Amino acid sequence: QVQLVESGGGLVQPGGSLRLSCAASGFTFRSYTMNWYRQAPGKERELVAGIASSGIMTNYADSVKGRFTISRDNAKNTVYLQMNSLKPEDTAVYYCNAGLGRYTYWGQGTQVTVSS
């Protein structure tokens, strides 16, 4: 059974930091591109960050460049999203995603709320 389980979300003040984790199982994690998406109330789901299977190539939405860092540990089947300098507009449900060709898997999401 494929599982992507996010953790690390919560309430944080503007300017604060959170580290999200996504633990994967049930598929060959090291072969998959891993991504973080988010969906804010009233908005479409958007790609926040992606990382290639090697962990070397990464990409980020312009809105988070310089603030967020995606990383992965293939030995632990885990992908991370370090979020710094958080803004209220970062408030959303954050979803872990795995992709390889036609195969796409999603986690259930974790809530991140940035508010004073």
Question: How would you describe this protein?
Answer:
With 116 residues, this protein is an all-beta fold. Helices cover 0% and strands 53% of the residues. It is built from no helices and eleven strands. The radius of gyration is 13 Å and the shape is globular. The mean pLDDT is 97.
Brief write-up:
With 116 residues, the chain is an all-beta fold. The chain is built from no helices and eleven strands.
Q: How many angstroms separate the termini?
A: 40 Å
- Please give the radius of gyration in angstroms: 13 Å
Helix tally equals: 0
Mean pLDDT: 97
Query: Structural class per helix/strand content?
Result: mainly beta
Count of beta strands: 11
- Specify the overall morphology: globular
Helix/strand order, N-terminal first = EEEEEEEEEEE
Helix content class = under 10%
Features:
four-stranded antiparallel β-sheet, seven-stranded mixed β-sheet, 53% strand, 116 residues, mainly beta, 11 strands, 0% helix, globular
Fold topology:
Elements: E1 3-7, E2 10-12, E3 18-25, E4 33-39, E5 46-51, E6 58-60, E7 68-73, E8 78-83, E9 92-100, E10 103-106, E11 110-114
Parallel strand pairs: 2-11
Antiparallel strand pairs: 1-3, 3-8, 4-5, 4-9, 5-6, 7-8, 9-10, 9-11
